[in-house]
Give the backbone structure.
Amino acid sequence: MLKKFASDALGLSDIGKIIDKRDFGKVDADDYIMHEDDEKIFFLIKSKTDEYCFTNLALIHVDGTSAVSKKRLVIRYDYYKNPIRNVSIETAGTIDLDCEIKFTIGEKAFSIDVDKNQIEQLKDLYKALVRIGYIIEENEIMLKKSEESLSIAANACKSGKIVEGDAAEVFKKINEYAFNWTKINRENYIKKDFSEIFKNYINN
């Protein structure tokens, strides 16, 4: 017990370890993975208080208050609803015990300390997060442009004369076209599953 208190006081409990793929099923975060929807863990950092679980769909943070408390708060950050920004990595100095990865997901800023001996694995996570952030940013731009295009087309229709025919039928066709346009572009530009990105960068 005294060792746990000392570890908290010195801040050593915050230094995380990257968990091997073979041990993913042993961590608390695994209980909150949506296995039924083909969600898979690709990278996991575990300290004495927290778990940072990166899946193909989301970051799941199992937030602990201290090394001696059993209370946990589980927070899920789906990538498509929480863009990743400001990704950086800090390598260890001569006397440091840890390296650090920082990023913002949605409105939440994370700073995660990791054992300096695992820096090479942490670099893989860094690259994956940078790539995911880039894809989400580009898709947001394209989705906005597609919405602007639809708005321009709608305004052009308003300014012109409606062709002969039943007004209700014309309205129905325009409405269906607008709905399908929006649906197709949302499917194209709102990416939810980043499996291929993690497979490309993470070497488990």
